[in-house]
Every structure is written in structure tokens, then in C-alpha cells.
Amino acid sequence: MKQVEDAKSFAIQSFCKDLLDVADTLSAAADSVPERAEAHAESAAAALRSLHDGLRLTRAQLDQVFARHGLVAVSPLREKFDPNLHEALFTQEVEGFEPGTVVTVSKVGYKLHERCVRPALVGVAKG
């Protein structure tokens, strides 16, 4: 019974993993457009605002879909490094952080029903 339940819960894991790159691209596009555009033409500013709002709305909808299917973001800033959920890209000495604490998140990770689909790419404080 447990194996059947797990098979049902994780059947969409590959699909979810594929959508993560889409989510990253949408976030990067939204972040590249300033919320308040300073342009000479009012229409250009309105277009940028519209693009920004549309990208944010799309990302919010994608997050809702992820949540509905049990896909949860892992952004472990200031948490203890967990090799089951995080992938350390580098270590560095940082004042005010205990060794083994995540000090930078380069890419958010994701879990599907408590199983790691993609580890968070992080920088970790060293002692």
C-alpha cells in the first residue's frame, strides 16, 4: 500500500522538475524589468508596468499550481546546511554566521511531498 501511495504521489516528479526551469526563467524576467520604469514616453512606462505585472501574475499562478501538487520551494537562507536539501557551491567566512549556516542562496530548491526534487544551490559559512 505504501509503495502504491508513493508511486501516485511522485508520478509527476519529472513533470515538476521540468517546470522548475520555467519558473526560474519567469522570475528572472520579472526581476529584470523595474517595477517603476522611468522612460521618456508614458506608453513605454505603461508597457513595462504591464509586462512586470503579467510576469508576477504568471509566477504567482505557477506557484499555486506547484503548491496544489505538493511542490514546495526550499530557500534556506540563515538555516543550517542540510546535504539532503542543499548543494553547497562554496564556503566563505562571514561574520555573524555560525559555521555550517547558509549565507547565500543562488538557486531555490524544491521538494515534492517532502522528497527533494532539486537541491537549493547555496553558499555556506565556514569556521
TrEMBL record:
InterPro entries: GrpE (IPR000740), GrpE_CC (IPR013805), GrpE_head (IPR009012)
Protein name per its UniProtKB record: GrpE protein homolog
Any GO BP annotation: protein import into mitochondrial matrix
Top-level taxon of origin: Eukaryota
Entry keywords, A to Z: Chaperone, Mitochondrion
Function: Essential component of the PAM complex, a complex required for the translocation of transit peptide-containing proteins from the inner membrane into the mitochondrial matrix in an ATP-dependent manner.
PANTHER family recorded: GRPE PROTEIN, GRPE PROTEIN HOMOLOG, MITOCHONDRIAL
Organism of this sequence: Papilio machaon (Old World swallowtail butterfly)
